[in-house]
Amino acid sequence: MSVEAPTSTPQPAEGEAPKKRLRQSKLSTHVHVSCFDESDKLQEIDFRILQEYDCRLYKHIKYDPPSQCAHTGRLYWRTDMTRAMLQTFMRALKHGELSLSVGVSVAEALNTFKYEGVFIRIPPSRLHETKTVQDIPGGVGFEKRAERVTTVVIRTCEQVASAIACWPRLEETLDSSLTGSSQHPSASPTCCWVRFASKPHINVGSMEVATAMARKCPLWMWQGLVSMGLMHAQLVRDGVVGPKDRSEDSYRALQEAIEANFLGTLFFVRDDWTHQGIAALRKGEKFATEMKQSVLDGAPVQPTSFASPESKDEELRAYKRKCEALAYAKGCFCYMVALLGETPAIARIFAGSCCDEACRSFERAQLARALQARGIKLLKWSDDAAPRPLCFPHAWSVTDNAEPKGAMCLLSFKDAR
User: In degrees, to the nearest 5, what angle opens at C-alpha 366 toward C-alphas 360 and 369?
Assistant: First the structure.
């Protein structure tokens, strides 16, 4: 970001560098700022406001030599803020209260204020030392999130609708109702009751997260590891990683593939089949078994004695590979735990406790629109227990025995099948 002096400021002669220092008396009350994300658009700021807080930007303009714009000939000073952050900063200094611009998070604002030397919520004993900015007031009337909640809800509905549209277990259930191979009381060839399962809770006690998850290995963890294994197999086919590669680069490639998946944190739903032993899942199950066993085996013992000088290098390389494999496996377990924490609690989002008399809510309406765009019609909602509804995601259902009731919807796939 660069701060530009007003046009009335005396210009240096051609070929003459700007003076090393500009006295405060020579600066106008207002200067212009060019943000680093929009360097061609100037923002006017009040220099006197910066002086009141004696911040880093004020000292930079007061003491450091300016640069000169090659197009307009104007003088400016560079800073390190985006346009949105600069607006947040100047508005807070002027009003004495923090309010965030669109695209600015609380963490970014607090870090910027700390860097600039402007204090927020300092101890009462230091109130006489410097001017401060009040923190964002509590309450929903004051936006604090970098992303609006409605945006998160809409994205969640889109991901849930996409996951339902490509859910193998649901397709198998509908097909079995047509052929009569399975007696599912809540499904017909074109309709099915789907209940949104409650989000699993994680309790590892005093144990290490990866070790506790490897020992318990609940269904949601196992399903996630299997899907990771299938993604790893795809990366091997694409030549991105090797089949036995368990290095940091290989783990990063797997993580990036998961983050790029259009289902987001529900990526594992595409690999949820009724019969877990089918050939399509064998590579994923082999990968999941390897990750689990690596964590349960624990850290390898570093070799201290060697059979021969020739075998020393080979044994040390084998030890290094085992350490990389353990770190890789622990990373997979911890990453699945982190993804579960990021996954929205869809059972709460679509719960009927906050709906009107017609069982309508903003969240339910958004899901109906997302499903409709994929050829799936949401016929009705119910919070009463239906005979064996299909739980979504199925990997969460085994942890949901304490709450057999919950938000359920009847879906019609007549236009999609």
Answer: 105
Overall CATH class of domain 2-133: alpha beta
Q: Rounded CA gap, 216 and 199, in Å?
A: 17
3-class state of residue 21 by DSSP: coil
Query: Distance (Å, rounded) from C-alpha 354 to C-alpha 290?
Result: 44
Residuewise pLDDT in 10s, the chain (417 residues): 444 444 444 454 444 444 444 444 455 788 877 788 877 777 778 888 888 888 888 888 888 877 777 777 777 777 778 888 988 888 888 887 777 888 888 778 888 888 888 876 544 444 454 455 555 556 655 555 656 788 889 999 999 999 999 999 999 888 888 887 766 778 889 999 999 999 998 888 788 999 999 999 999 999 999 999 999 999 999 999 999 999 999 999 999 999 999 999 999 999 988 765 476 788 899 999 999 999 999 888 877 777 777 777 788 888 888 999 999 999 999 999 999 999 999 999 999 888 888 888 999 999 999 999 999 999 999 877 666 788 999 999 865 444 456 789 999 999 887
DSSP letter assigned to residue 352:
G
User: Taking the alpha carbons of 49, 52, 54, 55 in that order, is the dihedral positive or negative?
Assistant: negative
Name the pTM for this structure.
Answer: 0.66
Domain residue spans of the chain: 2-133, 149-199+346-412, 209-342
